[in-house]
Amino acid sequence: MSRVKVDPYRSEPEMAPPLSERFCNWCDGPLPRGKARYCSEQCKKDWQSFITAFGKRIAPWLLITRAQRPRTGKEAGPAYSKAQNRVRDMTDETLSRLRTAQRRATGGR
Ligand SMILES: [Zn+2]
User: Fold this and answer.
1) CA of 64 to the centre of ligand 1 (A)
2) DSSP, residue by residue, 14-67
């Protein structure tokens, strides 16, 4: 069996908007002038490894929510609700842990 390569976004840089307009995505510290997402190179590296690991966990569930979403006049696939709940729970839990870690790091800004 040959390997399938189907990632059309592989060559695109990360262009998602920052979590906040004024604070670092990773440590939640204030952004220096001219910086849009991270306050330092270390925060950028830490954020990127975090998002890579989180992406691997959540991506299959995200794809299921799109592949099995309800279409007009048809029912959603059997895995749709489970995947939708899983995406919500993983996102909520991850944001909560991230904010707790940020509060600890910034002394509860
Ligand atoms: Zn930072």
Assistant:
1) 33
2) --PPPSSSSB-TTT-PBPPTT-SS-SSHHHHHHHHHHHHHHHHHHHHHHHHHHH
